[in-house]
Design goal:
By secondary structure, the chain is mostly helical. The chain is 74% helix and 8% strand.
Amino acid sequence: MARRHDLTRMAEAIDRNLRAIRERIRRPLEAEIARGNLTGPQQSVLHALVQSGGMSLKELSAHLGLAHSTVSGIVDRLQERGMIERRTSETDRRVTRIGVTRQVRDFVRDTLPGLLLHPLEEALARATAAQRRAIVEGLKTLREVLEKP
């Protein structure tokens, strides 16, 4: 049976490797976001709107945990850049729904998946068939033992 100290060292090594892998996979996406000159809060607003399909300003403020006036300013700047749009609710004309524009939806649908998968596809193309099988089996095994009750 493995000693607690050995298990801790193994867990730390796995954690370091998973963080490095995650960072490497996200690098192309982060470069694309950097080209868009989006602040962290602007990215958070876009992410929330993409995930939800649209929200009112009040809902968005609550979701992000930011003041109404702060979110309103972020929304204004994103609207000026053509990334989001405001629409009057069909059910309650007093409520304005905020959603992403077609340009952003198309990016999320068409470009984003490739940015996330491209580093993995490149790495797998460089790997031998045996290495590819070992990677898939190793990750599958790790997931299985993590999910065991």
